[in-house]
User: Which sequence fits this backbone?
């Protein structure tokens, strides 16, 4: 199964080269890597152009929509031509070594495979503790309340069949889009599984994620999922 890895980046000149090198060293599944320039103002584009000379399967595309993770992600998805697609952050927090395991799990008949930090074998190293507590709470409670087959729904690091993405209309405007996509896939009846991964806090550059800014978006989809579950339960009882 051929694969596209979508890497949204915004001002990651210090780390994007390391990320792309790590992908090429560790992912054995035949793949194409799409780097999405999300209105970068530093040397990120130049770094990607340089490394693409070494690796012809790396392609740079530009987010011509409004700046932001959601639009960068959608831009990447619009350029996917393979059966499988996985977003991976450009800051080396996601572990590229997990991708081959996700593809193996997908081959068992799943439509979505989530890389999970909150199951046996997974973990988080570094990063703000409050964000870790928040993502763990969201993941474990949504798993229990709505029955989604992952304990890490907020993690953007998920492998999808392209048909799943094409069937879902996304409304989110920031990083909560990843949670929205997984929840809508779940309620649409797509088959989902998860494999362990280890997330590591960035060692270079500065994070663009601020909990107070992103929390309302996650809360929106958290409530949406619970209400959607309750409506389904009421219909089943009638």
Assistant:
């Amino acid at each position: 199964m051929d694969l596209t890895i979508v890497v949204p980046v915004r001002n990651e000149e210090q780390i994007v080269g390391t990320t792309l090198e790590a992908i090429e060293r560790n992912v054995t599944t035949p793949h194409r890597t799409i780097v999405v320039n999300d209105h970068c103002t530093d040397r990120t584009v130049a770094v990607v152009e340089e490394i693409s000379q070494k690796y012809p399967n790396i392609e740079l595309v530009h987010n011509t929509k409004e700046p932001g993770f959601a639009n960068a992600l959608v831009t990447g998805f619009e350029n996917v031509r393979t059966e499988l697609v996985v977003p991976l952050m450009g800051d080396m927090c996601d572990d590229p070594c997990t991708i081959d395991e996700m593809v193996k799990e997908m081959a068992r008949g799943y439509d979505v495979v989530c890389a999970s930090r909150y199951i046996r074998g997974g973990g988080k190293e570094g990063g703000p503790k409050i964000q870790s507590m928040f993502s763990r709470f969201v993941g474990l409670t949504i798993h229990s309340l709505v029955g989604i087959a992952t304990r890490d729904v907020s993690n953007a690091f998920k492998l999808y069949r392209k048909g799943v993405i094409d069937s879902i209309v996304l409304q989110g405007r920031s990083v909560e889009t990843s949670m929205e996509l997984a929840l809508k896939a779940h309620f649409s009846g797509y088959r989902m599984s998860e494999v362990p991964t280890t997330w590591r806090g960035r060692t270079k550059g500065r994070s663009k994620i601020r909990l107070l800014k992103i929390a309302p978006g996650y809360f929106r989809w958290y409530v949406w999922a619970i209400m959607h579950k309750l409506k389904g339960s009421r219909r089943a009882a009638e």
Notes: Helices lie at 16-26, 44-54, 69-78, 98-106, 129-146, 162-166, 177-187, 211-237. Residues 125 and 174 are 23 Å apart (CA to CA). The chain has one domain: 3-237.
